[in-house]
Amino acid sequence: MEIAVVDYKGGNVQSVLFALERLGAQPTLTSDPEVLRKADKVLFPGEGEASSAMEALRAAGLDKVLPTLTQPFLGICLGMQLLGQHSEENDTPMLGLLPFTVQRFVSDATHKVPHMGWNNLQALQGPLFAGLTDADHVYFVHSYYAPVGVYTTAQSTHPAPFSAAVQHGNFHGVQFHTEKSGAVGTRILANFLDL
Amino acid sequence: MVKKRLIPCLDVRDGRTVKGIQFEGLRDAGDPVALAARYAREGADELVFLDITATNQRRKPLTELVRDVARVLDIPFTVGGGIGSVGDVEALLLSGADKVSINSAALARPEFIADLARRFGSQCVVVAVDARLVNGEWQVMTRAGTVATGREAVAWCREAADLGAGELLLTSMSHDGTKSGFALDLTRAVSDAVPVPVIASGGAGQPSDFTDVFNAGGADAALAASIFHFNETALPALKHYLHNAGIPVRL
Predict the structure, then answer these.
(1) A172 and chain B in contact, CB less than 8 A
(2) What's the fold here for domain A3-193?
(3) B11 among known catalytic residues
(4) Domains of chain A, residue spans
(5) Between β-strands B147-152 and A152-157, what pairing exists: parallel, antiparallel or unpaired?
(6) Which among B2, B120, B196 is the nearest to A119, CB-wise?
(7) pLDDT for the residue numbered B55
(8) How many CB pairs under 8 A join A and B?
């Protein structure tokens, strides 16, 4: 199985590569549209700031390529947010594959921003979460979030519910870091590779 | 809801894990790769990996060791010690670190925090603050705790958060290695002053110290080294203790 990890110089991809290798995969880190089109699975890790990430995608021509992919696709963290329409982070237009606007968390005395740490998943739907329950925890680090909508396949709360995972067709996204979420994250990555 | 985190700290010198009493008189505590894997298995929520001699001896952080640790680790992982440039940070992130912890360089050039936040995102920028209680005031120390900066701890924490730190690692040097409990007043003052998560460090000796730092101190995470390294308090037992005490933890 050919597994491509999108390389757009915008995020820390090493942890994702190591996690895939622990599952026995041999991922290819690439920004080549042909390699991406031919891959059986595409993973899209993201970290950092939304407008710089979109600029990096445009510079590599990937803003036009990614939306045309037809194989199972997994956006992680900022890689999930970029699937939406727009982000409040520096008023940034995104890839527009899913109908959400990314918003900023508001901190209060007991809810810090970034939302950082292990939180449990709720309202799990779909094949990515096969074998998991509402008691399972995954690792989040983010200051912006996608609201809950028809596309939501898992929720978490901080303090209100938000989208921990989204899906539209072949495009899947997870706000948490599958590659840093222990056995639970490993199961979700394995479920993705099984799609 | 997001859970309170327990973070073993691997202080590393010359490729071995060590832990000192108030930063001096170091004892050997083992192979960092083996320790990292063991902690992940036992339910550590994150790890911090500090190259404790890097700042004073101006050595580069140990990117090779970072890579070895990251290869086996499926939980988040922060690296600190001697980080002074954007290039240092890039090398560590490319080796598999999830976050970096900066200390002396941030005190020397506070704009370094903003540079890193812009380049890599706040989520990977941890500012470590070493504080010592001097005449009733918490003073910030630099260069592995050896030099006073004249800055007051809460004010510096607020400034660091404003500049783009995504998290603060707050160590009481007056408590570090003493096993007399965390600095609760300092932790509470910082936690109330900043919107970002605060990791409390220094002084963990028994399970009730953790209950106190989460409840009275308002900490989001607690970091400790020796009580974990020397099997004085096992992580799974500590997590169950905290759960039974009403602290939200990941079991």
Answers:
(1) no
(2) Rossmann fold (3.40.50)
(3) yes
(4) 3-193
(5) unpaired
(6) B2
(7) 52
(8) 101
